[in-house]
Design goal:
Blueprint (H helix, E strand, L loop, with lengths): L2 E6 L2 H6 L5 E3 L1 H5 L2 H4 L10 H9 L9 E4 L8 H10 L4 E4 L8 H9 L4 H13 L3 E6 L5 H7 L3 E4 L11 H16 L5 E5 L4 H4 L8 E4 L9
Parallel strand pairs: 1-2, 1-8, 2-3, 3-4, 4-5, 5-6, 6-7, 7-8
């Protein structure tokens, strides 16, 4: 059975959550799940600023990752990694992530140097510096970039387009194929879910080692 992880808003939540690993991301954890999925592209706050504030003076469990806006236009990757290392944190994820986006918005961010490829470059740099890394991914087209980043773990999520235009069975089939390919290279698969995508993600639960849930969502029946 998968460990019941949590998207956490504070170091205290990480400390008190005892059923599985946590992903610390104060901004995405405090927002409604559907809005949180858009955080990588909306100017609604300072995701990394909130993260760094939450980490100062705190010690996280070793199984916890911190969610970094890896395409932060105001902070250089090495500067961010220097700050995190100074705070005693050596486990990072690309969260919030443009992996959730598609179409013109995703293309525009990539063209501006703020897309998914920039996130994977950040994780690759983090690995080179000795960090553990968790790579968020939503589709097979992103897999070559993930491979190049060589993350420690992979987190499968459902992209925003998956919950709208495409039939459920097709989305689940695509994600199951992605999970199979990811599992061939990384034994332990994490998945992310909240209420709006729970039905989509349900097909992945049997193969997951960790399920990260948004704190504003109650856990569905396993």
């Amino acid at each position: 059975m998968a460990l019941k992880g949590r998207l956490a808003a504070s170091a205290a939540e990480v400390r008190d959550h005892l059923t599985g690993p946590c992903l610390l991301s104060p901004m995405t954890a405090r927002l409604p799940p559907e809005l949180a999925d858009l955080c990588s592209s909306l100017p609604i706050g300072d995701a990394n600023g909130e993260l760094l504030d939450a980490l100062r003076g705190k010690t996280l469990r070793k199984d916890a990752f911190v969610g970094v806006l890896a395409n932060d236009p105001f902070r250089l990757p090495d500067d961010l990694l220097d700050i995190l290392a100074g705070l005693g944190c050596y486990s990072v994820a690309n969260w919030p992530s443009t992996a959730m986006l598609s179409g013109e918005l995703a293309d525009a961010l990539t063209h501006s140097g703020l897309g998914y490829d920039a996130e994977m470059a950040f994780l690759k740099r983090a690995r080179e510096r000795g960090f553990r890394t968790l790579a968020a991914i939503t589709n097979q087209a992103q897999l070559p970039l993930v491979r190049a980043a060589q993350p420690s773990h992979v987190l499968i999520a459902a992209g925003l387009a998956a919950s709208t235009a495409v039939p459920l069975i097709e989305v689940q089939r695509s994600l199951l194929t992605l999970m199979k390919k990811v599992k061939a290279e990384w034994n332990e698969i994490w998945i992310y879910e909240h209420g709006s995508i729970a039905e989509i993600i349900s097909a992945l639960r049997p193969g997951a080692a960790v399920i990260i849930r948004h704190p504003q969502e109650s856990a569905p029946s396993e």
